[in-house]
Amino acid sequence: MNETMVTVVGNVATTPVYRELPSGPVARFRLAVTSRYFDAVKNTWNDGHTNFFTVWANRSLGKNVQGSLSVGEPVIVQGRLKVRDEERGGQHWTSADIDAQAIGHDLSRGTAAFRRVLKGDASLTDPASLRETEPVG
User: Fold this and answer.
1) pLDDT of 134 above 50
2) Name one Pfam family in it (predicted).
3) Taking the domain 5-124, which CATH number applies?
4) In the 3-class helix/strand/coil scheme, how is the chain assigned residue by residue?
């Protein structure tokens, strides 16, 4: 069980795509992670290289991603890193995927309101209505 576990902080780069598959619900989105560095000579912060990851969220995490995340929002993703090399159409591709175990908004850059999903309450498990429900206390 030597898997590479990572915690990545970045921004949602694409609208989450949600699907109901025979194996269960799944959502995926692209995560952009840009390094920043301080240039002491110019006394400014500068953007470095941007890495993109495809984040996969399964089962209830996938349902909740669909109703909770939008493009541009800052998030923290923890999960298993999977780097794949493949040939497609005569070209070599390398992709980095994260099989997410946990996803949350980065509260150092904003606020969020948590809503617990209750089993049996269809309005709280329908991805289309998750953004419109009131917080459950």
Assistant:
1) no
2) SSB
3) 2.40.50.140
4) CCCCEEEEEEEECCCCEEEEECCEEEEEEEEEEEEEEEECCCCEEEEEEEEEEEEEEEHHHHHHHHHHCCCCCEEEEEEEEEEEEEEECCEEEEEEEEEEEEEEECCCCCCCCCCCCCCCCHHHHCCCCHHHCCCCC
